[in-house]
Amino acid sequence: MAEDLMTDTHKTDTQKGRVEIDDVVIRFKGRQGPVTALARTSHVLEPGTFTALIGPSGCGKSTLMNAIAGFVKPSEGSLRLDGKPIAGPSPEVGVIFQQYALFPWFTALNNVRYGLKQFGLPQGEEIDRARAALAEVGLEAHADKYPQQLSGGMKQRVAIARTFAVGPKVLLMDEPFGALDAQTRLVMHELLLNIWRKHRATVLFVTHDVDEALLLSDHVQVMSQAPGRLIRHYHLTQQRPRAFSRSGSDLLEIRDEILDLLHPKTDLADSL
Amino acid sequence: MAVTDMSEDPTKARTSPRIAPFLSQGAKWGAKAGLPLISFAFILGIWALVGASGMVKEAIFPAPWSVWSATVEMWQNGTLQTDLAKSLGRAGVGFGIGATLGVALGLLTGRVALVRTLLNPFLNLLRPIPAIALVPVAIVWFGIGEGSKYFVVSYTVFLTVWFNTHHGMEYVPETYLRASRSLGASRMREFLTVVLPAAAPHIFAGIRLGVALAFLSLVAAELSGASSGIGFRLQEARQYVRTDRMFSLLIILGVLGAVADLIVHAIGKKLVHWEQG
What we know:
Chain A: InterPro entries: AAA+_ATPase, ABC_transporter-like_ATP-bd, ABC_transporter-like_CS, ABC_transporter_ATP-bind, P-loop_NTPase. The structure holds two protein chains of two kinds. Chain A is an alpha/beta fold. Helix content of chain A is 38%, strand content 24%. Chain A has one domain (48-73, 87-261): Rossmann fold. In chain A, helix 4 crosses helix 5. By secondary structure, chain B is mainly alpha-helical. Chain B folds into two domains: 2-55, no CATH class; 68-275, MetI-like fold, CATH 1.10.3720. Chain B has twelve helices and no strands. Chain B is globular. The A-B interface holds A 69-71, 88-91, 93-95, 97, 99, 101, 103-106, 114-115, 117-118, 146-148, 162-163, 166, 168 and B 173, 175-176, 178-186, 189, 193-194, 197, 200, 273-274, 277.
């Protein structure tokens, strides 16, 4: 297990995708003055790591993600990717949305080609690359279908193929499997880990599902109630694929701790 | 509950999963296409009964056969053909100008904040003014010829198409734009292949409304100041108290509008194919 970790770290060191979150504060205009969505936060996502960001709903985890994606400007502090400030959305930072965000007027293939257009490839090569990306998520047979003809899991697979095809250094996922049933979710976890192992982007995975965070990530960051800040960090070294039955009791202990953090017992007692 | 629902709403019954398996695909299609005919036949039957009973005066409420012979008469002396050609030409040209300008300006006001600030409040102020109120102005500006008809029709169509296009642009989902930008698309490609298709259903809804309004405003323009066209012929029929001709012309107007709507709807369905389930 320790050996596995060593090789992992070694491999990732050679690649880029380092995200620096430096004293970032995010406020929104509310009806009664500014509302702090994200309290002062500093953190570094090391290249090639898989970090899960978990916290109660409305705690600002999506806000932090949107800031790294370049959709939202921090009110204070700075965000850098490999030393360069993040000024707006860019293909270096891929985003997977909970609602897939596939374009319904394009087939699965053309959705993937949409991202490839920027490279100005010859048409044949562009199509080949898009097909290869779809094959990677097991959807080569569905290339010519429209999103509305695909199931939720398949849609998200197209979205994953579309994003990875562009070759992002960082991949942000905002509760990507939140709309899927438990069975499909497990399949998607395996698929995501396989593709991530190949492409080695730095992943930030926003979820409110503790189990999902523990099964997938190297690092789990727990956020507080709004205004959110990072309150606890776990470094997980258990070999993947993980399962609570196989991966030892430490995962279960961490799980209980995180659940306690998210739903303090006193609250529960009050509500009973 | 379900049973009363079905008897009240024939469209529901048609798509009901309980009934669907008993109907073959062809039979279902036949039923769908045939349903309006049942309604037409029903109304025509009542109309014929009233006409045959002699309860109402022919001059006030003509029977179906009188309306039919009035139609044949107008066709044989050639006025129907020229009126149809004139009216359709006016509606077509006016619609073309209005829809083109409406889509173009809607894309602009939807996309460019400065244009929006300069024009939207003013255009919204114009929207409640009915087409018929414009006819006197149009006649002063463009005379009694074709110009005033084109103006009234294109003005009406323009406002509706502009309004819908503008709103379609406003409701382009934010996630589509976010996805597009983090996939590295240029603004031009984003506009052509994301914003436009995302707004297309609204644009087509506007165009469909525009077609209906083109006929409405055309007849308004022709009723007061024209020497040909369906609207003019209606006005003329009033002078001779030819209710049979009036009925004929009204039915023709209804059929024209319905056919135009069907055509636009079919084209829209093809172009915005992803909107249907």
